Automatic annotation (TrEMBL):
One of its GO terms (cellular component) is clathrin coat of trans-Golgi network vesicle. The lineage of its organism: Eukaryota, Metazoa, Chordata, Craniata, Vertebrata. Clathrin is the major protein of the polyhedral coat of coated pits and vesicles. This is Clathrin light chain. Residues 35-77 form a coiled coil. GO terms for molecular function: clathrin heavy chain binding; structural molecule activity. It is found in: Cytoplasmic vesicle membrane; Membrane, Coated pit.
Length: 157
């Protein structure tokens, strides 16, 4: 059993190879032309899709870099504004004792000033109506929509 096996990509039988060659030569000219044109068309489509894919990748990379640049600039601006606000807050007398009580007192002072029609302006000052501003907080879109609808059509008594 010292038999050596040979691998081949085509038929191993000589008659099968001749039969395959006969089938290829018997193929009509129109089908052969169509097959060649189809192969050429598919190659062109593949090349075009690769070019388009590369363009999209470059555009996406450029957009991502621009977004990162804008995001970093915005973060720097926010940091600078927060530092300024922090310094101004701590320069007040008894700043460590005041804390958030100062903002509550300012709100209560404003709420005591009753002017007809100014209620919604006060609510709007307390609410952040920009849905993209805070990603870490809870989803309050339903509450926001209720407040906006109440502002547009107030309850009748």
């Amino acid at each position: 059993n010292n038999c050596v096996l040979q691998e081949s990509n085509g038929p191993t039988d000589a008659y099968a190879a001749i039969a395959k060659a006969d089938r290829l030569t018997q193929e009509p000219e129109s089908i052969r032309k169509w097959r060649e044109e189809q192969k050429k068309r598919l190659e062109e489509l593949d090349a075009a899709s690769k070019v388009t894919e590369q363009e999209w990748r470059e555009k996406a990379k450029k957009d991502l870099e621009e977004w990162n640049l804008r995001q970093n600039e915005q973060m720097e601006k926010n940091r600078a504004n927060n530092r300024i606000a922090d310094k101004a807050f701590y320069q007040q007398p008894d700043a460590d004792v005041i804390g958030y009580v100062a903002s509550e007192e300012a709100f209560l002072k404003e709420s005591k000033e009753e002017a007809p029609g100014s209620e919604w302006e006060k609510v709007a000052q307390l609410c952040d109506f920009n849905p993209k501003s805070s990603k870490q907080s809870k989803d309050v879109s339903r509450m926001r929509s209720v407040l906006i609808s109440l502002k547009q059509t107030p309850l009748s008594r």
